[in-house]
Structure formats: C-alpha cells, structure tokens
Specification:
heterotrimer; A: alpha+beta; Ubiquitin-like (UB roll); DNA polymerase, domain 1; 2 domains; 5 helices; about 35% helix; C: alpha+beta; Aldehyde Oxidoreductase, domain 4; 18 helices; about 25% helix
Chain lengths: ~150, ~300, ~775
C-alpha cells in the first residue's frame, strides 16, 4: 500500500504492508533510528513520535494509519543545526544518561510545552509518566523541562 | 499453546490481515456484516495491537475507523451528552463540556494510561476491550450511560450495565459496531468521586471505583457505586447502594456500606494483587469515594 | 584547593550528549547492514525438558538459515570472563538440547525479514520429554531432586554437581560461639529478597558480520568489548585478531551485560553458517527471559554488648542463581565481603551456597548482591539498636568499617586499607537535614496516614583493584595522541553505560594537560584498536579508567613540555599549559616571560614537519587498591494504612565519592540509585507460575512495573549532598559512585516503614498487600 505523509517537515511517500508498524517504517526503511523499540506494547514510551504534534506510540501504530498526517521524530526537532531549547536543557541539566529514553522523553516534553508553556512540576511529571527512564530517577529530566520552559518564555 | 512463547515477536505484527478504511459508517457496517467474526475494529489500536502482538487474537480483517469523523466528537443533545465511540480519550479529557458537566468521567479518563495512550485510544475502544479494570467503564456505570450499537439491521441501545459479559467479552454481536455513548444529564447537586489504585501511577487498576450520589434532606437519595478489577466485569455494588439509600451519611453508615461491597465482588489473585488485597482496597476506595461524594454533594462529609 | 581546578568539580554536559538528544547516537540495536538477515530464537516452553526430536525442515523450506544445539561448537563455557579460572565454573552452551528454564534457547533461524524469520521459527517442530522442574532453591537442594547439571567444568576438568549446589564458600574468623556468648543482645532473622529484572531500556542485541578471511565484526550491547571478543574466540576458535567487537552506545545495562549475552554467540553461529550479516535483537519479552538479579535468602545473626559494640555475626546465604552460573562463585566471595565491610565483626562465620533452579539465569545487577545484604544488615542493625536502647545512627557509627580499617568488599582475595572516608560527616549532616531528632517513635501513630523516617548507609567498591593479583581481573588501557590542530584523540575500550564515565575521563585529561575540554575527542573504538579493558562494572569507570586516562595525559604532557622546551628555549619543568578557549586549544608558555608561548597545535604541526613523530602515550593500568565510596540515605515515607500504599515524602542522600568530577552527573547517579532502590523495596519482582514454569508476567513489562516520574519525590524534597574527600589512589582524588548510590536505599526505606507503622518486613518487595496483612494481624516482631 502506498502512503504519503509529512515527515519532519518533508513530504514523503512509502510503500508499506498493512501490518507494517510505524516504528519499523521509520527505523528500517527511512533510517531514522532515534525512535527506539523498548517494549513493543506501549508500556515504555521509547518509541514516542509526534503525530500532528501529539505524542503517540509508534510501536502500536500501523504505518498505513499515518497516511496524510504529519510525523515529527527526534531527528526533526533541531532546526538548521540549532538545538531545540529542550535539547539544550537536557544537556545542561544532566538529564541524559544512557540516552535510550531521551528521544521519546524530549518529544513528549515538547508536546507538553507546546500545549502548556508554563507547566507546574506536577503537570510535568504527570505528562511524562508514559516515558520510562531507568537511569535518572527523572529528577534532572524534570529540571530540564522546567528550564526549557523558562528559556522559551523569554 | 505450549510453543506460545515462540509465537510472540513484539518487534513486528506477525499477522497477515486485510486492512479496510471505510469512508462512511454504512460502508463500515457492510464490512462488518460481511466479515463478522473474522474482523476486528481498529480504533486507537492500543489494546487491539497489543492483543495481536500477544497472539491472543489473529483477525483476518482489520476495519479502521480513522475516516469515520461522524463517530467522533462530544456534544450536548436532548437526553444528555453524546460522545462518539471513536472519540480520542484525550479529546474527552480536554473537553469543556465533559469537565463541567461530567467531571467524574473527566477524572476517570485522565486515569487511563499515559498521554500517548490517551492520544491514541478512544472511549469506544476502552469499552469494547472489555477489561474488567477499564477506568472509563466504572465512571460510565455510575453515570448510567447507554451504549449505541449499530449494524446494517439498525440500531439498538444497550445500558452499560448489560454491556460487559466477561473479560474481553461484550454484548455486541460480531456484526455490530459501538457508535456512541450517551450519558443522561446528571441530577442537580450531585456528588461524585473516582478512585483508583495501581502498582504505580501508570498502571492498569488493581481496583478502581466510581460513585455518584445525591442528597435529599440530609439523606442519601440516588446512589450508584461501581467497581472495577474485582470481578469478571466492572460491577455495581448493589447491596452497598441499597444500604445507603434513604439514610443519613454517618461515618458508621459509610463503614457498613463499604463492608457490604464484598457481597457484589468476586476478586481473584493475579500478578497485580491478591484477592484479599482487592477486597480490602475495594472497601477503602469505596469509603473514600463515598466521603468525597457526600462532601461534593454538599453534605457534611466525614 | 577546589578553585585550582578548571574542569574537575564543575558540571559539564556529557560529551556524547548532543548525539543523544538529537537521536543521532548509534546503539547496537540501531545497526542495520546491507544484505543483513534477521534472526529469531527458538526458546523452550518448558522449565526442564529434553529435546527428543527437532524438525527444522519447515523453516528451511521458507528459505531460513537454521542452527540448532546440534550445529554449534561442543564447547562448555562461562559467559563472564572477569574472574580467573580458579574462580570460574562453566556450565553454558550456545544452544541446548536440554533446556533448563522457560526461554532457554534451543535453535535459531535467520531470514531476509523479521516477518519471514518469525514464520520460519513457527515452522520448527519440537518434541520434548518433560522433566521435573524445581523453582525453589531449598527444594532444589534436597537429595534425590533431579539435577539441572550433572557435571560442569572447572579448571579444564569435569566436576560433579551434588544436590544442585553450584558452588559454596565458607569463612570463619575468630570464635563465633564465644562472640555470641559475650553479647548482651543477639538477634537472628531470616530475610528474603526479590528476583528483580534489570529492565535496562535497550533489550540485548547482537549484529554480526562475517568478514572475508574467516573473521567476524560484532556490534552488541556489552559492558566489555574485549571479553566479548575473547569469549567468541573460546567458543568458535576464530583467531582473536580476526574478531572485532565495535563499541556502540549502550542503552543501560546495570550489570546485565558484564557477561556476554546469549544473543552474541547465537548470532555468530548464524552469521558463520549464512555467510551474511545477521541481526539478532531480543524483544523485551525475550530480554526478560535472559537475565535477572540474584534472589537470596539470608539467615543473619548479630550479637552486641550493651555498650553498643558488635561481638559476633553469622550469615548463611542461599543464592537462587537460576539455571546457570554466570558469576555465582565470585559472588559468594563478594557477598561476605559486602557483609563484613559494613560493620566490624570481631568474630564471624559465613556459609554461602549458590543453588540451581529452573529459572532465568541470574547475574549481577547494580551492586552485585550489596543492595540485598545491605538491606538485611541495615534492617537488623536498626532492630538491634532498638533492643539495646541506642540511637541507630550512633550504633552504626560506632561499629562501621572506616578510615584505616581493612576493607575487602570485593571478596577475600581483594583486600586493601581504607585511606579516605567521609562516613561520619555523611551521617551527621544527613541527620541534621532530615530532622532525625524529630522522628516519631516507631508504631506510636494512630491515624490513617503515618509517616516515618528511616536511615540506611552503605558503600560500594571503586573497581576490584588490589595490591596483589587475587582472582579478579581488573586493569584497563588508554591511548592518547595529539593531533596537528591541538586536539587530542582519546582511545579506550571502556564502555560508558550512561554514567558519564568517558566524559569524566575527558575532564581528567583536559585538567591534567591544560586544554579546553572540547579538545578531547573520545574515539568510538573497537577491540582491534584498543588495549584490553576488563569491563565497565564494579563502579570502576572513573577510579580505574580515570587512572589510565590520567597516566596517558601525564605522559603526553611530559612530551609536550619537552618538545616545547626546545622551541621556546626554556626548561621543560618551567613551562606551563593553559587552556585557551578563544584559540580552542592549549597554549604552552613560559611563566613570567611575555610572548614566549606556542599552541599545542603549532607544536604538533612542527613535530610533523620536523619529523619528531607523533606526540602520544599508551598505558595499561592496574589500580593497586579498591577504595570504598560511601553513601547515606535518610528517607521519609508515608504509609496509607487503609490501602497499604507507601509514598515518598522526603529524601536526603549524601555521598563520599572522593573528589567529585562532574557534580550534575554524579547527582544523577544518586537520583537514579534512589529510584531503583525505591522500587526494589516496594515494587519489583519476577515471580513464577509453578504450573507453566514461566514467569507470571510471561515477559510482558505490563506486569513488571517501574516507578514513573509521578511516583518519586518532588524536586525540592530530594536533597543530595557530597562530602568531598581526597582518595590518595584515585585520579584527582576520585572514587566510584554508581553502585553505592543504590546499595542502602532499600534498607533506609524498610526502616522508614518500620518507623511509621511499627512493623518490620523480612521479605522484598514490601507490597501494599503485605503491609495491609501485617497491619491487620497486628504483627510486630
């Protein structure tokens, strides 16, 4: 089946099977390996991408279902080589350790800040609870999201 | 089944099926009529695809609701509030109407999964998955919701009470599609509460409970208590409700009612909790939910 | 002192950070090669069985390449190569015809797509003879129980296994009986730990490419590229030089890849047969059937006099190791080491037994038995203090193993003297910050919500270095060379599991030489281009790895100064180097003489033009000591006595890690350690279904819960502080941190729960179910 969708700002076309998962389309066919397989059943959030700006699980999404929609992956977040404030804040606050959860975590945080530019700590924690991290205990991640929100407000 | 472990590959969806994305409801119903048992409805996919990956179901046809905009949306209608079955959980969570008119549903929906899950999952999917632990189900039970099912034969209305038939089983016939949920307008000055216990903040409920009640002259009038994950389907705590009706909500009465909950539940022990724990937690949740509801209904509370 | 450092002690972003936040970092599971086949593994559905018949023709008809237990080399091995042969038992094969747990690999297929490979896998037919399984180590040890392994290999010989006991260790010092007689109070308790799963975010993966000439290139999730290489040599006989294991980023490990994961030899076998690259990526469910932490049963007895002095201790430990030995014997040694290095025991007896069961093989998990025994000891010391009428803080401080004491955390063959300790200050400052004096009396509260404060302290080693060789391999290698523009290439085999190890190395190099941090380029290397490093484990990354980095930096600096002295017409020892951020490199100058300077880039270019050669250094370094880093946790919890739920209220965590190299990343270790300890205490376990013999959750993490961002304390209620000491044997005085950050957490939480509700728990995890049951029964021991 042929599908067309916008990927990181670019129109693309792809040939997929009905059972092709969006995650595998991105990673194996489009060579965007930022989204990770962590569990395959929607529990960990490592495969998070943005669909029309909203975080979704690409491991539970049929590729055919994104036909005509817009997908943003972590690779599409930095524009013209300039890191997104969230990416900078994750670096500065030491919010990255092994980094495997980071792409999904940053994308979910982006959706949060797009929707709510000044979230409370509780709102941040609630919004990020679908992205598991085994390294950081989330402390520096929450700090990074707060910092990015402050920077973006300037 | 003994080689089941080798049939799981959650990297992929190791099942071949035909994918249909009907443009109209009529088209969808025709497909259902044609394929019946062999077809599954794809609404959000967060339960369906997991079950397929776990090889619990292997549909030959997938009928996607993605193009059926008529199955989406929330609006006030005569006789209550109408929610299209394919409405995303996030949309319900964000809806002004729901937040103001049905805060109980708002809170229950917010308790479902993660942001990602709620961006994908739909209210109809949450109900049709028929998990005994479904958070939306207990809220809709307390709210006395009616479910609209359609087939090419026509429409029928199923009270939510009669909808669940067991884990994963509903009253829907294979040719029927859940199209809408209709919630009657809640009574004046009602009190409500939703409570959930999971192992973590991101979990299927070990136990969940929803309460809706009204007070008249300082006595409990209308009262609905629904519990999840403590029986093969979400259940009403009928004995407790009866005990409360027409009486003044004292701490003793609440305590008695919470003890009566055991009459209507039949919890099991599984990896998420023991039966004994579910009994104790049910009582605690019902107590909490009743107290909060009474307070919200303008009663003295605890 | 601190001000004199330019990089050490200041927070700097990790050097692989940009790649990680932009999704450009490459993990083993991100490797896809041209013409690559996808592999799938046929796993045993039974916990104990024998394959009577296997028919792979269906898979082959689909075009898949298949290997079974009959096709792999007849080699019995141990997948972990950290210990010397004296401490290594071997009981593994690449694939098996006698599966010992649900999930044990029997055969594997490779095909052009994962879909096809999966179809091929499902086309394999196997007939099993089902054998009697054993899931409980105490059951397993009963005479007459079926043996998992009849014979295993040790030092090149076959040895018989009796009663499923994989190995044992006994140690006695002093006169234990007399010690207990001298005590005024003796307490004896039995503790049972949970069977946790690492749940590192990246499931185990191996990608193997056969090379012309018979070699292989391997990308895999590993904590040790060199040990992976040596193991593949041992199993397949491929010359070491023809095996190249390439470093990739690692999506967490926590000990689960100290050993070479089973995906590696299976993928090698398939790639050799297929003569094509093979990718074997485990699913999460397979990963949960691949490894778990050691579950332990302790019978722990401690005696003390009224004055608070411990007089004797005895520990009987039974380790449920699952179906294979990965490092059971070395663990028996470490376990006693962790135990005796917490508190001074003038008389002690230890009996450790590791027992086979038909469950997923156990391996090290952050702390390597230390979190388990520290939970038990910290619980019993708390209990003992109460019996003695002493403040647990004072009781523990009085008896703790500290400065000047003999320390053998890494076991009886790794002994050294403690030369730095901040224990006393950790405890005192932490107590002040949490308000220890104001904590409630245990069990005195009555309301629904009850709060309590608990204290736990602990340590972990920094490396397994020692003055004498012992039975643990512990050394590392480093290379450093100066490029023509003044940048430096730093080459090490050491892996960064996420802790920021290699960033710390870069800071040590930049500090020592005097160059901007950005000048240090961490080379993504492989086994062919690096010196041997044993493994990133034992919290040795900064202490042991950093020591090698420091040594090559010193050597390069010496050479730079020597060459610069010629050019600047000055004496080498009178020259200085400063990092010049504007010029983006180091500048060598003569102090006090203006204009007499040269950049490192100019000097390196000159060295090239004048044919002086590359300015470089190489070193293989062994640390002659094994200093403990210390931690102390004060945790306040709230118990809901109606639901049994426990909520974190406040955490104060202190650490003595010697000199802090990178504060934010160091704090991150504490944050992560607390989160892991929180769920160790309250949440995590992998119980088995005795009927199917499989994990109750069948491998789905739907039922292996980890805390989310919502389940942990708010920022302002999580306080971390460091007590800086100067470890004389560490690079710039630094020690380790990764494991000490976790070890005392469960003990502190258990003590806090006791303080809140007056009930002690002797089994982990402390679930709401157990709490309600205990409260209902009024149980209080």
């Amino acid at each position: 089946m042929k599908i067309r969708f916008k990927l990181n700002g670019r129109e693309i076309e792809a040939e997929v099977e009905p059972n092709t998962l969006l995650l595998n389309l991105l990673r194996e066919h489009l060579h965007l390996t930022g989204a990770k397989y962590g569990c395959g059943i929607g529990e960990c959030g490592a495969c998070t991408v943005l669909l029309d700006g909203e975080p979704i699980l690409s491991c539970l999404t049929l590729a055919v279902e994104v036909d005509g929609r817009e997908i943003t992956t972590i690779e599409g977040l930095a524009r013209d080589g300039e890191l997104h404030p969230l990416q900078r804040a994750f670096l500065e606050e030491g919010a990255v350790q092994c980094g495997f959860c980071t792409p999904g975590m940053i994308l979910t945080a982006k959706a949060l800040l797009d929707e709510n530019p000044n979230p409370s700590e509780e709102e941040i924690r609630e919004y990020l609870k679908g992205n598991l991290c085994r390294c950081t205990g989330y402390v520096n991640i929450v700090k990074a999201v707060k910092r990015a929100a402050e920077e973006m407000a300037r | 089944m003994s080689m089941w472990i080798n049939r799981i590959d959650t990297h992929i969806l190791p099942i071949n099926f035909q994918y249909h994305a009907p443009k109209t409801l009529e088209e969808a119903l025709k497909l259902l009529a044609e394929y019946g048992d062999e077809a599954k409805i794809l609404s959000g996919g967060t339960d369906l695809l997991v079950k397929m990956k776990q090889r619990l179901i292997e549909p030959r046809h997938i009928i996607s609701l993605r193009n059926l905009t008529e199955l989406r949306g929330i609006r006030e209608v005569e006789g209550g509030i109408h929610i299209g079955a394919a409405t995303k959980l996030r949309e319900i969570e964000r809806s002004q109407i729901i937040a103001e008119r049905l805060p109980l549903l708002h809170e229950a929906v917010k308790a479902i999964g993660s942001i990602q899950i709620r961006n994908m999952g739909t209210i109809g999917g949450n109900l049709c998955n028929a998990s005994p632990a479904a958070d939306s189900a207990v809220a809709l039970m307390a709210l006395g919701a009616e479910l609209h099912a359609q087939s090419i034969e026509g429409e029928r209305i199923i009270p939510i009470e009669n909808f669940f038939k067991g884990p994963g089983a509903t009253a829907l016939k294979p040719v029927e599609l859940l199209t809408a949920i209709r919630i009657p307008p809640p009574p004046e000055n009602y009190g409500w509460a939703f409570r959930k216990i999971g192992r973590t903040s991101l979990d299927i409920a070990t136990v969940n409970a929803a309460v809706l009640l009204t007070l008249r002259g300082g006595r409990i009038d209308l009262c609905r208590i629904a519990l999840g994950a403590v029986a093969p389907t979400p259940v009403r705590a009928v004995r407790a409700e009866e005990h409360l009706r027409g009486r003044e909500p004292t701490p003793e009465l609440i305590q008695e009612a919470s003890e009566l909950v055991v009459e209507d539940i039949s919890p099991i022990t599984d990896v998420r909790g023991t039966a004994e724990y579910r009994v104790e937690a049910s009582k605690a949740l019902v107590r909490d939910a009743l107290n909060l509801s009474i307070e919200r209904a303008g009663g003295g509370g605890r | 002192m601190r001000q004199s450092f330019r990089f050490i002690g200041r927070s700097t972003p990790r050097m692989d950070g940009v790649a990680k936040v932009t999704g450009r970092e490459i993990y083993a599971s991100d490797i896809y090669l041209p013409d690559m086949l996808y592999a799938r593994v046929l796993k045993s559905p039974y916990p104990h069985a024998r394959v009577k018949h296997i028919d792979v023709s269906g898979a082959e008809r689909l075009g898949a390449v298949v290997v079974t237990y009959r096709d792999v080399p007849d080699v019995v091995y141990c997948p972990r190569l950290v210990s010397t042969p004296e401490a290594t038992y071997k009981d593994w094969r690449v694939l098996t015809g006698k599966p010992l747990y649900v999930g044990d690999p029997i055969a594997a297929v490779a095909a052009e797509s994962e879909e096809l490979a999966q179809r091929a896998l499902e086309a394999i037919e196997v007939e099993f003879e089902v054998l009697e399984p054993s899931f409980d180590p105490l059951e397993s040890m009963r005479p007459g129980k079926p043996l998992l392994h009849e014979r295993i290999r040790y030092m090149g010989e076959e040895v018989e296994v009796e009663n499923n006991i994989a190995c044992t260790m006994e140690i006695e010092q002093g006169d234990v009986e007399r010690g207990f007689e001298e005590a005024d109070v003796v307490l004896e308790r039995e503790y049972r730990t949970n069977r946790r799963y690492h749940c590192q975010l990246e499931p185990k993966t191996a990608v193997v490419r056969p090379e012309p000439g018979g070699g292989v290139t391997i990308w895999t999730t590993t904590q040790s590229i060199h040990n992976t290489r040596l193991l593949i040599h041992e199993i397949f006989g491929i010359p070491v030089g023809k095996i190249n294991v390439v470093k990739t980023a690692l999506g967490g490990a926590f000990g689960s890849s100290i050993q070479t994961n089973i995906v590696v030899p299976i993928a090698v076998a398939l790639a050799l047969k297929a003569r094509k690259p093979v990718r074997l990526a485990y699913t999460r469910e397979e990963d949960l059937h691949e490894h778990c932490a050691y579950q332990m049963i302790f019978r722990l007895k401690l005696g003390a006099r009224r004055d608070g002095r411990l007089t004797a201790g005895s520990l009987e430990a039974i380790l449920d190791i699952g179906a294979h030995q990965i490092q059971a014997y070395p663990l028996l040694g470490c376990l006693v080491g962790w135990w005796v290095s917490l508190y001074k025991l003038p008389n002690l007896r230890y009996v450790g037994k590791a027992v086979y069961t038909n469950k997923v093989p156990s391996c090290a998990m952050r702390g390597y038995g230390n979190p388990q025994i520290t939970w038990a000891v910290e619980s019993l010391m708390d209990e003992l203090a109460e019996e003695l009428g002493l403040d647990p803080l004072e009781f523990k401080l009085l008896n703790h193993v500290g400065l000047g004491d003999l320390f053998w955390g890494q076991g009886p063959t790794v002994k050294s003297i403690i030369k730095s300790s901040g224990v006393e200050e950790l405890v005192r400052r932490g107590a002040r910050l949490i308000g220890w004096d104001k904590r409630p009396k245990p069990g005195a509260q009555r309301g629904r919500y009850r709060r309590g404060i608990g204290f736990g302290r602990g340590f972990h080693t920094s490396s397994a270095g020692a003055p004498v060789p012992g039975t643990v391999v512990d050394y590392t290698g480093a290379m450093l060379k100066v490029n023509e523009d003044g940048t430096l290439d730093y080459v090490t085999a050491m892996m960064d599991c996420g802790g920021g190890t290699l960033t710390a190395h870069a800071k040590i190099i930049a500090e020592e030489i005097g160059v901007p941090l950005e000048c240090v380029n961490i080379v993504r290397a492989d086994t062919q281009t690096t010196l041997y490093d044993v493994c990133t484990h034992a919290s040795r990354g900064v202490y042991a790895g950093g020591a090698a980095a420091l040594q090559v930096a010193r050597e390069v600096k010496r050479k730079l100064l020597e060459l610069a002295a010629r050019v600047l017409d000055a004496y080498p020892h009178a020259l200085k180097i400063r990092p010049d951020e504007e010029r983006g490199q180091g500048v060598i100058y003569v102090e006090g003489v203006e204009g007499r300077e040269i950049t490192i880039g100019e000097l390196a270019s000159m060295a090239r033009h004048k044919n002086w050669g590359t300015i470089a250094a190489v070193a293989s370094v062994r640390q002659g000591s094994c200093p403990p880093h210390f931690t102390a946790y004060f945790v306040e919890v709230e118990v809901d006595t109606e639901t049994g739920k426990v909520r974190p209220i406040r955490v104060v965590a202190g650490a003595d890690v010697g000199r802090v190299i990178n504060p934010k990343l160091a704090e991150g270790q504490i944050h992560g350690g607390f989160a892991m300890g929180w769920s160790m205490a309250l949440l995590e376990d992998t119980p088995y279904d005795p009927r199917s013999g499989d994990l109750l959750n069948k491998g789905f993490i739907t039922d292996y819960k980890l805390p989310t961002a919502r389940d942990l304390p708010p920022l302002e209620d999580f306080q971390v502080f460091f007590v800086e000491t100067e470890e004389p044997t560490g690079p710039f005085g630094a020690k380790g941190l990764g494991e000490g950050a976790l070890n005392p957490v469960a003990g502190a939480i258990a003590n806090a729960i006791y303080n809140a509700i007056g009930v002690r728990f002797y089994e982990l995890p402390i679930t709401p179910d157990k709490i309600l049951k205990a409260l209902k029964g009024g149980e209080r021991r």
